[in-house]
Structure of Polycomb group RING finger protein 2-like protein:
Amino acid sequence: MFGFINHRVKDLNEFVKCNLCYGYLIDATTIIECMHSFCKTCIMKHLEDFNTCPTCDCQLHETKPYLDVKTDKVLQSIVYQLYPSVFKDEMKRRREFHSNYKVKSELCHLSPEKRGEVPVDAYSGLEDDLISVELIMRNDLSSPLNSMETPPIYMLCPSILTMGHLSKFLTQKFQVSSNTKLCIFCVPNDELDEKYSIMDILCTYQWNKQHPLSIYYSFITPPINGSSNHKLINLANGVDEKNLFFLTRDKSKSYSSGKTHFIKNRLRSSLKSDVLTNVSKSMKII
């Protein structure tokens, strides 16, 4: 039988601290070649003069070293869960910065996390709760996000569910051809990567726990004969509603999922995107 090994939090400092500023990682950014991580501001400033890793001198792209680094949201969430005070202080600094130096009109283009408006308990590290989600189709990308020509799909999903799983779920339910692209997003012009999880979205975008988390999607056909225009597929008509799990919003019903729970250890919570059937067992259609 396997036992548990207790570690002091400070024993993990070497994995969650930046070797350039020697502080805890903020906007963690990882070098793809060697997997060393740094604060985004620190590594970007370093790459202005050098094209090597500050830790191991690994050679990056000679002329465009920025192509070899990538934002690491998983690592950043681990840092915030291990050190809640770091998250609290960072949100406070961002609010003060934007209050002193930014025009209000510019703030609307930033995510709540960038504005410092994410609540302190967003990275509480709790688990075993299902998140209320509403999937809303947008047939016109230029229309407001709240336009709903097709009834939304209400679901209860685990916080580790990824956009890749939702993509497969929607593609199968709508029986869309393989050459049709599915775009998933929370705000305009910000398509979500298939590796993003529900938890990542909750920690990046503002969410009122008294209502379902709104996730929008659109189906786009590839260009024809070299045309740059993409055609949106309207699936509101001609589809068997039995396969869509459509429900009309009942305003008298509470969609609150209660206290939002998150994963205690993201390092051991991995779901393979090709095992949709296993994930479906954790999802409930309201």
In short: The first strand starts at residue 28 and ends at 31. The mean pLDDT is 72. Residues 173 and 243 are 6 Å apart (CA to CA).
